[in-house]
């Protein structure tokens, strides 16, 4: 049975910063609520209250909501109008698709002088002869009934025929109440039959587990479980077919019974799912002999790199990029590493023994991968490579050694014969003076082999091209 709790009200009051004492509007529709309570104590300032599509059988505990202007209790199990006298500011009341058969109970709304709109569509009372005339003549303050405006001429005519209409309504009410009494008895009988049938089924299931059947289960456990599961599935399908195809009247009891049946089926499915989770064996990470296994339950890509230069092993595990780091648990052991990703184990045997205390783990800021650096336990001393330098003068070597010993700054020497750039000092070649007169540039010496042409004639009087 679902009830109105303070936690539920606070969750539905997010628009008011989860404060319920100053709440003016709240929606509690489709919550499978079976009793209306506590709202008149917690939310005294309510003006709009939505309670449609629940299982509420009675209007109660709303009389202290003095500021309530709109109450919506459509699609519930309400059978009469009551306990609304204290709602002094009530202007709109929606009772669509309920089970109101006592039409005379609307006389309780006479005290709600501000009531302007009333909705009774889908109730058994709307099928009574003279229904609209009776409501219009009873509630003088009403302006609109079932989304249809009440005209002045309609009200005058209803008041003129009120005694006769009231008598007809009383007679139809009595007939309806007798029919409802029979429906309640039928619903109780049907419910008792269903309980007896279920009890017999439980007894038959207990009888199914006889010693012979238990021995058979021990011999053929897998096959027996499969057959039993198939038998239960077929039985459940047959029960569902009978339940939904059986003709039943639309009453508060049948509506409540349908809800309980659906809830029971859902609970049974949840129990089966939980039992399967419990029955699922935990994956073995270390055998009974102490052998560590390689396991990759989360099915992640990874790479294991041996960094010889830094004498360490690096594991790159491609965890999900947007996965929160709090969902990762890294455990480095001397011979293996284990990472729990959202509770799913990833375990890898290492090729060499490592130092767990000196290991480090970090997340990549670009890819989100988990990078674990594990120094090797066996240290390897690598000799530094000597760089041979060809220096012609032996004095330079002596000076360098002395500089290292004395702690002076060591300077690099460059072999002039290995210049890789042109000498800017020799771009302009030297010029020679020939006799008297102006200085003439000497022709550039060309080392390349000149091509000989047959028709070429060298004239000395023509100056050279520069």
Model description:
With 466 residues, the chain is an alpha/beta fold. It has helices spanning 6-11, 39-42, 131-138, 152-160, 162-208, 211-219, 221-245, 252-279, 394-406, and strands at 25-27, 48-50, 70-72, 92-94, 117-119, 144-145, 148-149, 295-296, 302-307, 312-317, 328-332, 336-341, 344-349, 360-363, 370-375. The strands form three sheets. Strands 1-2-3-4-5-6-7 form a seven-stranded mixed sheet, with helices on one face. It has a four-stranded antiparallel sheet with strand order 8-13-12-11, with no helix packed on it. The chain has a four-stranded antiparallel sheet with strand order 9-10-15-14, with no helix packed on it. It starts with 5 loop residues before the first helix and ends in a 60-residue tail after the last helix. Residues 208-215, 387-393 and 446-450 have low confidence and may be disordered.
Provide tags for this entry.
466 residues; alpha/beta; 7-stranded mixed sheet; 4-stranded antiparallel sheet; elongated
Counting DSSP H or I runs of 4 or more residues, the number of helices is 9
- Please give the order of strands in the largest beta sheet: 1-2-3-4-5-6-7
Indicate the percent of residues in helices.
25-40%
Helix and strand sequence: HEHEEEEHEEHHHHHEEEEEEEEH
- From the N-terminal CA to the C-terminal CA, the straight-line distance is 110 Å
Give the low-pLDDT segments. 208-215, 387-393, 446-450
Instruction: Report Rg.
Output: 48 Å
The tally of strands reads 15
Q: What characteristic shape results from the CA principal axes? A: elongated
Structural class label? alpha/beta
Largest sheet: 7 strands, mixed
What percent of residues are in strands?
Answer: 5-15%
Query: What is the subunit organization of this protein?
Result: single chain
The whole-number mean of residue pLDDT values reads: 81
């Amino acid at each position: 049975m679902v009830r109105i709790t303070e936690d539920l009200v606070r969750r539905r009051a997010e628009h008011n910063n989860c404060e319920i004492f100053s709440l003016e509007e709240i929606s509690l529709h489709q919550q499978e609520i079976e009793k209306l309570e506590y709202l008149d104590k917690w939310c005294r300032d309510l003006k709009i209250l939505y309670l449609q599509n629940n299982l509420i059988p009675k209007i109660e505990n709303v009389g202290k909501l003095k500021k309530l202007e709109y109450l919506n209790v459509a699609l519930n199990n309400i059978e009469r109008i009551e306990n609304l006298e204290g709602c002094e500011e009530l202007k709109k009341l929606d009772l669509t698709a309920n089970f109101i058969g006592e039409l005379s109970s609307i006389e309780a709304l006479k005290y709600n002088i501000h009531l302007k709109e009333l909705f009774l569509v889908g109730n058994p009372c709307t099928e009574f002869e003279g229904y609209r005339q009776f409501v219009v003549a009873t509630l003088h303050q009403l302006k609109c009934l079932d989304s249809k405006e009440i005209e002045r001429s309609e009200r005058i005519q209803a008041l003129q025929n009120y005694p006769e209409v009231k008598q007809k309504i009383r007679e139809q009410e009595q007939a309806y109440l007798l029919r409802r009494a029979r429906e309640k008895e039928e619903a109780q009988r049907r419910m008792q039959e269903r309980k007896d049938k279920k009890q017999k089924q439980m007894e038959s299931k207990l009888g199914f587990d006889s010693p012979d059947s238990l021995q058979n289960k021990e011999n053929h456990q897998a096959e027996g479980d499969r057959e039993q599961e198939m038998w239960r599935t077929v039985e459940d399908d047959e029960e569902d077919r009978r339940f939904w195809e059986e003709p039943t009247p639309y009453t508060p009891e049948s509506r409540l019974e349908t809800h309980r049946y659906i809830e029971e089926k859902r609970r049974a499915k949840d129990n089966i799912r939980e039992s399967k989770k419990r029955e699922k064996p935990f994956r073995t990470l270390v055998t009974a002999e102490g052998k560590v296994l390689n396991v990759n339950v989360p099915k992640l890509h990874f790479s294991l790199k041996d960094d010889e230069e830094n004498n360490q092993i690096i594991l790159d595990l491609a965890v999900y990029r947007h996965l929160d780091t709090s969902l990762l648990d890294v455990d480095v052991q001397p011979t293996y590493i284990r990472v729990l990703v959202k509770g799913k184990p990833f375990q890898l045997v290492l090729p060499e023994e490592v130092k767990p205390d000196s290991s480090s783990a970090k997340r990549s800021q670009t890819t989100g991968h988990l990078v674990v650096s594990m120094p090797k336990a066996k240290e390897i001393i690598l000799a530094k490579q000597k760089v041979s330098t060809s220096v012609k003068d032996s004095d330079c070597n002596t000076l360098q050694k002395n500089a290292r010993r004395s702690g002076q700054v060591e300077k690099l020497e460059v072999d002039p014969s290995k210049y890789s750039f042109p000498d800017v000092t020799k771009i302009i070649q030297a010029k020679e003076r020939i006799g008297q007169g102006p200085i003439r540039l000497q022709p550039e010496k060309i080392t390349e082999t000149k091509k000989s042409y047959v028709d070429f004639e060298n004239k000395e009087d023509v100056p050279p091209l520069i």
